[in-house]
Amino acid sequence: MGSNQSNTTKVIGSTSEWVEFEDDWFSQGVSRYAYKGTFHGNARTEGERCVVKVYKDEYLVHLKDYAWKVDDRVYRKAREMAQLFNARYKPSTATEFVAPEFTKVDKRATFYFLGFIPFERNVKGKIAGTRDNVSNIIPANASIAVERFLEGDYVKYSSNTGYVNPDFPAPTLAAFSHFTYHASNGEFLVSDLQGVYNRQGFCLTDPAIQSGGSELNAHGPTDLGKYGIVKFFQTHNCNKLCKGLKKAKISKVTPGDKVVLDNVLQNMPSTQSSTTYTYQLNRKSGLPNDAVEHVQNNLTLDAVAECSETDEPGSDSNSDDQNENKWFKSLGGTIFRLWKLISWSR
């Protein structure tokens, strides 16, 4: 599978299953390194490929077990929403999220021996192209998430800042994100959709949840809160699956907060596929963190239905003039048809 698999995990949950994984990560985010691994200890999955995501030591220092627990909560909410979405729309291509299992690093072959002299193994460092001691990259007893390997071409369909992949627009997934805001009544929105498309449909991993509450980062470092929700609807194009779904509408914001909101939104990269982290909101906008958090705490978003089930996306279902005009046209057509029947009967 690549580099030497010298690392193992503790058993997963109450099962006998465990994982062996490589020395060198193939991808990394702000909080985890991703390694290729293999399942063992279970006849059903023996030898199958998986992905092991090791939480970085510097990330765990502050969050400890909260780090993996918040990720577990994000996955659970995303999976629940996917089940509701599939049940409601019954799309030809289902949407699902992988179900990670959480455990810890067990044995690490930390040393190799030259004669009788032990040397700590070198593995891929924190930056690509560098090497470091294994103990600095895969800490003893580190928390990890284990996911089954996704077969197919991996695609980043959307980001948490309004980006939509122009080569793979995936209207079903765009509608899914919109649906999560509607179904949660504005409490959150699932975004940052990535994964593979195969015979089962869309199989996704590493989603982000944008919180509609008063706290940034409530769902981990990719939770951009109300900024992420507003940005999503700024770039989202509704499709037929979005009929009847509520949208976020700013109902209360002070002039000062509006300046901060607009500044942050302008600096959220909707044309880039990369994931944005909460701490980057103030860095990219050049605003104090207190100002960014103040808007999250005080901005009021309402979940408002802007389209009815029978209206085309984008139509103004609240327009009395438009509805009245439709009624008169319908009435006029009925009268005309009755007049023709009476005329023919004579």
UniProtKB/TrEMBL annotation:
Segments forming domain Alpha-type protein kinase: 1-250
CDD domains with a match to the protein in the record: Alpha_kinase
SMART domains given in the database record: Alpha_kinase
Membrane-spanning residues: none
Pfam families reported for this sequence: Alpha_kinase
Molecular function GO terms recorded: ATP binding; protein serine/threonine kinase activity
Highest taxon of source: Eukaryota
Positions in coiled-coil regions: none
Record-linked InterPro entries: a-kinase_dom, Alpha-type_PK, Kinase-like_dom_sf
Keywords, comma-separated and alphabetical: ATP-binding, Kinase, Nucleotide-binding, Serine/threonine-protein kinase, Transferase
Protein name: Alpha-protein kinase 1-like isoform X1
Species the sequence originates in: Acanthaster planci (Crown-of-thorns starfish)
Lineage, opening ranks: Eukaryota, Metazoa, Echinodermata, Eleutherozoa, Asterozoa
